[in-house]
Fold this sequence. Notes:
The protein has helices at 24-40, 44-49, 124-131; strands at 5-10, 52-63, 72-83, 86-95, 101-113. It has one domain (5-131): Hotdog Thioesterase (Thiol Ester Dehydrase, Chain A, Roll), CATH 3.10.129. It has a five-stranded antiparallel sheet. The chain has 138 residues and is of the alpha+beta class.
Amino acid sequence: MNIPHCTEIKVRGYHLDLYGHVNNARYLEFLEEARWALLEDGDLDWFMQHGYALVVSRIDIRYLRPAGMGDVLKIETRMDRLLPRSGVILQRVVKKETGKLVAEAEVTIAVLHSGKTGALPITDEIAAHLASLPGPVV
């Protein structure tokens, strides 16, 4: 069984909307923080040394229940699959105290290089480095 990468974030007052819930836009930041942690624990240095940029090309977030002040959110992040010119990362936001699912996201990423136009093919070394991240890459 492949264990996802986990990042914890404590909800602060500035994360909240007027209703006392985490603002929907903040989840984008939480998810991004968790993806950076995944990459930093993985092969971020290799991508940077080769001039590659990992960019989000699509994100689909499903909000299931609110989170509020003081909640500790556990963000589970894993590389799900590699496609010809992209990869798909799955993320789950869970309340640490209750284990209840707050939100889940499917994030499509592409690999760019400043010297080339468009998304690079996910083959060879790029595929190997993305596949080394936690998750059932297929």
